[in-house]
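ARCHIVE CARD
CATEGORY: sequence design from structure
SOURCE FIELD: tokenized fold
FIELD CONTENT:
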């Protein structure tokens, strides 16, 4: 799932530059098209006609793995402005998904995308580290205890909202909104909250 985005851009064979910028290494390819995207979750993105790449021009080993210099065949770049704690602290959010393209059969549409890396950038700061409160161990995947996924405040809704910059993910969206208006501090570490960001998790 993608964080809500004001715009969405697809790069082909792109490398990361300073401050979460990306550029395509093959200059003869069409320039990436930035598409406006309304905010919200669960939306379907349809790429504009004529803005893709003909995969037939590339060798399979170019598509199926990152190239030298950490160049990924496919980079999905979503930009948004996170809801600020106060009007003076607007936060630009960028979610980057770096992926490869695997061939699953010999047909013209026999390709699938495999995600290799995802990270968030908030106001120039990288948050590619794990959010505390999101289970990722094999034990958690097999049988996560209900108490480990409940919001620590209402004890009913699932945790789906991360607090930045401390990265604690211990509340649901509704309770995070209430905390933002009242204490403005994380309930776990008491660190001041700069931004809250909703991240849907399949437990």
């Amino acid at each position: 799932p993608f964080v809500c985005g004001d715009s969405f851009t697809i790069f082909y064979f792109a490398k990361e530059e300073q401050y979460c910028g990306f550029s395509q290494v093959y200059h003869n390819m069409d320039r990436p098209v930035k598409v406006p995207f309304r905010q919200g979750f669960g939306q379907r993105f349809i790429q504009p006609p004529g803005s893709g790449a003909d995969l037939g021009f590339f060798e399979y080993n170019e598509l199926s793995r990152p190239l030298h210099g950490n160049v990924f065949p496919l980079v999905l770049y979503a930009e948004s402005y996170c809801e600020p704690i106060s009007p003076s602290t607007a936060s630009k959010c960028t979610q980057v998904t770096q992926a490869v393209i695997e061939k699953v059969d010999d047909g013209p549409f026999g390709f699938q995308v495999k995600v290799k890396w995802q990270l968030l950038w908030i106001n120039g700061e990288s948050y590619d580290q794990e959010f505390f409160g999101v289970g990722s161990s094999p034990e958690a995947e097999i049988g996560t205890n209900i108490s480990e996924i409940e919001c620590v405040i209402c004890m009913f809704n699932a945790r789906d909202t991360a607090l930045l910059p401390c990265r604690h993910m211990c509340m649901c969206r509704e309770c995070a909104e209430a905390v933002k208006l009242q204490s403005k501090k994380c309930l776990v570490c008491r660190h001041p909250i700069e931004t809250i960001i909703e991240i849907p998790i399949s437990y």
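CARD ANNOTATION: The two ends are 14 Å apart (CA to CA). The chain has two domains: 7-126, 138-198.
SHELF: design records, drawer C
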